[in-house]
User: What shape does this take?
Amino acid sequence: MDKELKKITPSFKEISLKQSSFKSLYGLTPEVEQAIIHAINNKKKSGLKKLVEPLHPADQADMLERLSNENLNTFLDLLGKSLDPEVLVYLDQDIQENVIDHIGPIALARAIHDLDTDDAVDILQDLEEKDREVVIKQLPSSDRILVEEALSFPEQSAGRLMQREFLAFPSNWTVGQTIDHMRTKPLHEEETFYSIYIVDPAHRLLGVISLSKLLSTKRPVRLKDLMEKEPRSVTIETDQEEVALLFQQYGLVNMPVIDQLNRLLGVIVVDDIVDVINEEAQEDLLGLAGVSDFSIRASFIETAKGRFSWLILNMFTAILASSVIGLFQEEIEKLVALAVLMPIVASMGGNAGTQTVTVAVRALATRQLDYSNLQKFVLRETWVGMMNGVLFAFLSALIAYLWFGDKQIALVMALAMIANLFFAGILGTLIPLTLEKNNIDPAISSSVFLTTATDVIGFFTFLGLAAWIIL
Assistant: This one.
């Protein structure tokens, strides 16, 4: 077995020689991943370190997420203090919790000390309160003050997102003074930045200058003559979703965060906003499906518990739809074709309504839909539902006639299809709008109400028309 493994597994020397070519690739290569697992299985600390260190922290995090729990613990034991603290930032929350539990509060405090404040807060806010307090006590006083202040801001706010490392200068400085000052900063204090901020003696925000504009301007020019006055900014209480919309709307790469007195407190950078956008989109997507967690590493008990509440609600709504069918039991017994065709009507209405709900929920989330264009949106979706209803009425009627050779059944099928797709268009807009107005998340609740409504309307319309026209 060992001989066969050696044949397919590159040596540490071979992998090390190839690292330069791997750096140009996105993510992990199968060869590197295989070699890392081989090093873990054989507990080769030096070989593992040589393989892991050249990888970007995001790739290291990707590797950790692919490991089994046993291999993950071995990896952490072997790497120890050599693990790049920035890896924690890129980990999924469940793996991040496992890593934190394994390394302990003292090692976590050392790691957090090397991170930007926004990343440190992002990690600490997910810990239990008692564990968070232990870690914070281990931090140097300067870090502790910044972290505790950030954690005092509301959850999912700009105050939690912002990093406290930024560059601010007086307005009377020249471009030359500013550049010389930045060049003399110690290397370990340098941060990635895209703009510099201009403040008065009370640290109130006066303006902003992009890095490209600063570097392309002559040295004697004063910052006050170069800065963009009244830059877009947010307060520490601004919701992160609102911040993300501003970044998307205006194509920003960073944005200052101020307090009520217009004092500059921090900066939000686009990489954090990308995470927010992904989180919000993921939350909406999972909510529409009635799923609270998508982690593939969660236990089957946790997964089942997370989905039970929505499934039980769906069961009761399905009973409601079935009760409508029960009202027409005698008619169905007389004509078996009704039992065959009625699921088609309900299914088409549900799918059409889901399309409309998805558009409506996304429009609400991105603030594209409000009361100024509400009527136009509802009318458009209603007419779309009507048009699709007419088109599919012809198609479904033809199928019903070819299937059963009965013109009356084809007529019932056509009329029921028009009615259900028409109502699906209306309800697909009104349900999420009504939920939003009542402060209920439409992404989570819309699909349950819509499915029930289209099923009930579809069954009642189809069977009611059949009872009236045919029987």
